[in-house]
C-alpha cells in the first residue's frame, strides 16, 4: 500500500504544541529511513504512532530523544530547539523514553533500580511507585533479571517518572504481555493522562492505543500517511486495521 504523506493540521496559537517535529529525515549510515515526518503533541495529549514493523516509529522516538543524531529537520520542545542537543540534555529538558527493550538494570534489585535515578521536583517518589504497582514493593529485593516481562515494563515506566518528565515516550509497552498486565499498565497510563502528562505511544496493539490516545499518526515506509482522531476511530477502524495488517 502506498499513500501520500500528509501534513497534519498545524496547531493554533491557543493550543501551542509541547513538541513539534517538522520535516524529520533520519538515516542509519547510507540507509534513509524517515522521509519528512511531521507531527506534534499538545500539552496533556496522548498521541500514538502506529504502523507495521519497520515503518519508522522507533526511529522517530530515537530521533526526538537525540539518540539517533543522523537526522535533519526540526524538533522543538516547549519552544526550544532540541535538534542539536545530545540525548542527556534532551532528557534534562523533560523528555523521558522507555525503549522497547525496557532498559532496566538487570543486576540491580527493583528497589535499587528505582532509587538510582535521582527524584526531581514533580517526579515520583518510591511510595507513589509502590502505590501504582504494589508488585514492585513485593519484589523490592529481586534482581531486575528475575522479573516477569510485565513487572519489567512497570519498573521501566516508573523509573523514568522519577525525573518528573513533561513528555513520556513509550515504545510498545504492551508487547508480549498478558492481557491482565496490559490492562494494568493501560490503567496507569490513563491516570497519568488525567494528571496532564503528555505521551507518545508507539503501539501495534490497536485496542491498547485506541483506549488511550487522543490522536493516531499512521506510519508507512518512514512517512506519516494518515492522522486519525479518537472520535474518528470507530468510523475508520477498517483503515487502521489495514495499515497494521501484514
Ligand atoms: N540500527 C539500525 N541500522 C540500520 N537500519 C535500521 C536500524 N534500526 C532500524 N533500522 C531500519 O529502519 C527502518 C525503520 O525501523 P524502526 O525500528 O524505526 O521501525 P518501527 O516502525 O519502530 O518497527 P519495529 O516495531 O519493528 O521496531 C526499518 O527498515 C529498519 O530495518
Can you give me a brief rundown of this structure?
It comes from Deinococcus phoenicis. The protein has 246 residues and is α/β, with parallel strands linked by helices.
Give an overview of the whole structure.
By secondary structure, the chain is α/β, with parallel strands linked by helices. It has a domain at 1-94 and 198-246: P-loop containing nucleotide triphosphate hydrolases (Rossmann fold). Helices cover 31% and strands 26% of the residues. The protein has helices at 57-65, 87-92, 110-115, 126-132, 134-138, 149-161, 179-194, 206-212, 237-244, and strands spanning 19-28, 31-41, 46-50, 71-77, 80-81, 95-98, 167-171, 198-203, 215-220, 223-229. The longest helix has 16 residues, at 179-194. The protein is globular. The protein starts with 18 loop residues before the first strand and ends with a helix. The model is unreliable at 6-13 (pLDDT under 50). It binds adenosine-5'-triphosphate.
Strand order of the largest sheet: 6-7-8-3-9-10
CATH topology of the domain at 1-94 and 198-246: Rossmann fold
Radius of gyration: 18 Å
**Order of SSEs:** EEEHEEHEHHHHEHEHEEH
- The count of DSSP E runs of length 2 or more, i.e. the number of strands, is 10
Which CATH-level-2 architecture of the domain at 1-94 and 198-246?
A: 3-Layer(aba) Sandwich
Low-confidence stretches: 6-13
Helix content range: 25-40%
Organism: Deinococcus phoenicis
Pfam families: ABC_tran
GO molecular function: ATP binding; ATP hydrolysis activity; branched-chain amino acid transmembrane transporter activity
Domain ABC transporter: 19-246
Amino acid at each position: 500500500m502506498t499513500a501520500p504523506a500528509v501534513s497534519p493540521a498545524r496547531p493554533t496559537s491557543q493550543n501551542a504544541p509541547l513538541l513539534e517535529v517538522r520535516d524529520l529525515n533520519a538515516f542509519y549510515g547510507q540507509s534513509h529511513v524517515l522521509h519528512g515526518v511531521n507531527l506534534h503533541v499538545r500539552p496533556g495529549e496522548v498521541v500514538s504512532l502506529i504502523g507495521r514493523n519497520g515503518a519508522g516509529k522507533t526511529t522517530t522516538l530515537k530521533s526526538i530523544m537525540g539518540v539517533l543524531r543522523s537526522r535533519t529537520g526540526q524538533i522543538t520542545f516547549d519552544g526550544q530547539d532540541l535538534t542539536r542537543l545530545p540525548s542527556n540534555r534532551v532528557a534534562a529538558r523533560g523528555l523521558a523514553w522507555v525503549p522497547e527493550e525496557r532498559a532496566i538494570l538487570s543486576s540491580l534489585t527493583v528497589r535499587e533500580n528505582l532509587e538510582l535515578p535521582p527524584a526531581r521536583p514533580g517526579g515520583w517518589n518510591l511510595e507513589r511507585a509502590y502505590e501504582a504497582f504494589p508488585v514492585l514493593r513485593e519484589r523490592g529485593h529481586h534482581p531486575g533479571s528475575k522479573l516477569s516481562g510485565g513487572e519489567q515494563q512497570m519498573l521501566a515506566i516508573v523509573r523514568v517518572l522519577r525525573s518528573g518528565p513533561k513528555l513520556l515516550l513509550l515504545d510498545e509497552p504492551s508487547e508480549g504481555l498478558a492481557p491482565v498486565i496490559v490492562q494494568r499498565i493501560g490503567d496507569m497510563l490513563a491516570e497519568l493522562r488525567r494528571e496532564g502528562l503528555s505521551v507518545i505511544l508507539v503501539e501495534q496493539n490497536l485496542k491498547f492505543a485506541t483506549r488511550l490516545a487522543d490522536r493516531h499518526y499512521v506510519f508507512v515506509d518512514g512517512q506519516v500517511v494518515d492522522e486519525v482522531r479518537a472520535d474518528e476511530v470507530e468510523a475508520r477502524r477498517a483503515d487502521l486495521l489495514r495499515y497494521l495488517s501484514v
